[in-house]
Write a structure and sequence with these properties.
single chain; mainly alpha; Arc Repressor Mutant, subunit A; three-stranded antiparallel sheet
C-alpha cells in the first residue's frame, strides 16, 4: 500500500484499511483451517470445551455473545462430526452439557498447529518492535471499541421507555 501524507490519513481511512486487512486475514486463516478439518468457529468452541470442561449451551451462548440458536447449530455440527457430545447435567436432569470428545481433542490439536503456523507466517514478517507496537495499538483500539459499545448500550437502555 502506498504511504500517504499523514495529514490525509483520516480515522475513516485507517478504519477501512484495518477492516479490509482483518477480513482478508480472517478468510485466509479460516480457509486454511477449514481445509485442515476445523473452521475457526469450531476451533474456538472446542478450545473452550477443552479448557473449561463440559458446559451448558446457554453458558456457551453467553461466552461467545451469540444467540442460543447459533450455538445449537455449532454444537449440532460438532456432534455430527463426532467432535463433541451432549451429556446429561448431573446438577439438573433437564439440562445437557456439551463436552469435547477424544476425536474432538485430536482435531483441536491439528487445528491449533495449523492456526499457530499461519499466525506465525502472517505476523512473523514483523520485527519484534513492530509486533510490540501493533499489540499496544490493538489494546488501545479494543479499549475504544469497548467505550463505544458501553456508551451505545447505555444510550440504548436510556432510550427505552419505562
Amino acid at each position: 500500500m502506498e504511504v500517504q501524507n499523514s495529514a490525509t490519513i483520516t480515522p475513516e481511512l485507517v478504519g477501512e484499511r484495518y477492516l479490509a486487512v482483518h477480513h482478508r486475514m480472517f478468510r485466509a486463516v479460516n480457509d486454511e483451517m477449514s481445509a485442515s478439518g476445523l473452521s475457526m468457529t469450531r476451533t474456538k468452541m472446542l478450545r473452550r470445551l477443552h479448557e473449561q470442561g463440559p458446559t451448558r449451551q446457554s453458558v456457551l451462548a453467553a461466552d461467545f455473545e451469540c444467540s442460543p440458536r447459533s450455538i445449537t447449530d455449532i454444537v449440532d455440527g460438532l456432534e455430527r462430526l463426532g467432535l463433541a457430545e451432549r451429556r446429561p447435567d448431573p446438577a439438573d436432569r433437564r439440562a445437557k452439557l456439551v463436552a469435547i470428545t477424544d476425536a474432538g481433542q485430536s482435531a483441536l490439536d491439528i487445528a491449533n498447529v495449523t492456526r499457530e503456523r499461519l499466525l506465525t507466517q502472517i505476523f512473523g514478517g514483523l520485527t519484534e518492535a513492530d509486533r510490540a507496537t501493533l499489540f499496544r495499538l490493538l489494546g488501545r483500539l479494543d479499549d475504544a471499541v469497548q467505550q463505544v459499545t458501553t456508551t451505545s448500550a447505555t444510550q440504548g437502555a436510556a432510550a427505552i421507555p419505562a
